[in-house]
Amino acid sequence: MCSAARARAMQKILFSLLFALAAPLAWAGEERPIRLSEVPAPVIQGLKQLLPKSILLSANTEQEAGQLVYEVQGKLEDGRKFEFDALADGEVEEIELEFKQSMVPGAVLKAIEKKLPGFRPSYIEASHSASMKVIAYEFVGQLNGVQVDLEVSPDGRQIVLADS
Question: Which of 35, 89, 144, 163 has the fewest Cβ atoms within 10 Å of its own Cβ atom?
């Protein structure tokens, strides 16, 4: 093989390697819509076990920490929104349920009022573990005319302004 042909072959190999390495990085963190029929059966089975009367509306995948996560969105029987995140084998990563303000513990609401007087939530969701234990509350609302996103621990002791 002549040196020009060898150089072209080497360029092709290098380009293929660069593409193979860079493609997952470009895809990381980006949601990719998929059909509900593309969601693996263990994910749907786990969702239906934890949220039996839910209505499934849409799905997507997202790369998180090097793993492909299936995210299924829907509504509960009472109309509240949810997102169910799991790995292909059905291992639950997180379950996010829309909450009404009346469902949030009073200690959490008092802690927010103390730290951020005048904050008015417009949307609340509770993040749950696979055991359906609340691991955090997420609030979106207004404070002095500015939209604010908060992440709050289940006991209200930690309140963090999230990236809006």
Answer: 163
Dist CA 155 CA 137 (whole Å): 10
Q: pLDDT by residue (tens digit) across 97-156?
A: 999 999 999 999 999 999 999 999 999 999 999 999 999 999 999 999 999 999 999 999
Beta bridge partners of 8: none
CATH for 100-164?
3.10.450
Contact criterion met (CB below 8 Å) for 65 and 92: no
Q: What is the pLDDT of residue 24?
A: 44
Tens of pLDDT, residues 8-23:
444 444 334 334 444 4
> Rounded to an integer, what distance in angstroms lies between the CA atom of residue 137 and that of residue 133?
11
Which residue ranges make up each domain of the chain? 1-29, 31-83, 100-164
What whole-number distance in Å separates Cα of residue 2 and Cα of residue 14? 18
Token representation of residue 18: 């660069």
- What are the angstrom distances between the C-alpha of 159 and each of 37, 110, 137, 152, 155? 38, 12, 9, 5, 10
* pLDDT for res 162: 86
Q: Find out whether 134 and 122 touch, Cβ atoms under 8 Å.
A: no
In the structure encoding, which two tokens stand for residue 54, read together? Answer: 């839910």
